[in-house]
Design brief:
340 residues, alpha/beta, 3-stranded mixed β-sheet, 13 strands, 16% strand, globular
Length: 340
Amino acid sequence: MLTTLFAALLLAAMPVAAMAQPIIIAHRGASGERPEHTLAAYERAIDQGADYIEPDLVLTKDGVLVVRHENEIGGTTDVADHPQFADRKTTRTIDGQAMTGWFTEDFTLAELRTLRARERLAEVRSANRRFDGLYQVPTFEEVLTLVKAKEAETRRRIGIYPETKHPSYFASIGLPHEAPLLALLDRFGYGAADDPVFIQSFEVGNLKALRGKTRLRLVQLVAREYGPPDLSGVTYADMLTDAGMRDIATYADAIGAEGTLIVGPDGLDTGFVAQAHGAGLQVHMWTLRAENMFLPPALRRGDNPAAHGDYAAALRLLIATGVDGVFTDFPGMARAILQP
């Protein structure tokens, strides 16, 4: 009788051509090869064949949507090296957790323009540090402009997959995401249900608000632990019952799920994708990375946590579940595997 691990490895060896092809979502751009959330990371992802690029959206003091994984920018920019901003360092409570650093909502766009991006995972992706100091923090408008330019160059549609970061927090300080986000998307020609756009959030309230204002597709992000920051006492597990998924389907088109919800520690399909499909929802997995430290033990290669493991096998395991999309830091690797 096959062990579960051996069965998982057999699945990983299946020809990709025999499986459904998920969309490739470039997680913060080609962030395995360039500092995340820079125009360089997005352009490289597009050139490598990503179907969608993913900008995380926060706001400046003057209400401009800019692209950072968090509104705290101490780890992704050189702000600490600017003495004129030393007094901006502060502690804020975001989604119930105290965070100390520098926050985008305390800077105008002009002030942010004086900063330069840095590699966030410097110990893991030391090669990316050679790009430190080269790139500004982009605005969402600049990302959309880049996409349109690359569409004209490549003659193919390139999808946009923005995430509203901490929307209830930003709304509480008078900087809501919804109006500037939808206004920019409309200005660039996005508004129909079949346009290549997914808007995602770990919260529920802003997705429901967006559902009343746009036909663009919406994605409820979920994790194995915790719950939506805007719904006290509700866990993501509560939302992922059959009834909970049917409720999600009333305001969202897809679930963005942590990978461990889709493939278990034994490397086998948990049934999550089939359950979500039964509720009428697509499933997009986050996040596939190539480094050993992010892969299950059976797919690691060697003892160096920063070295690459068996990324191809991990992708094949996900594809075998029928997942509709995969967020990845290495879109070029994913495209090479998916191509015949």
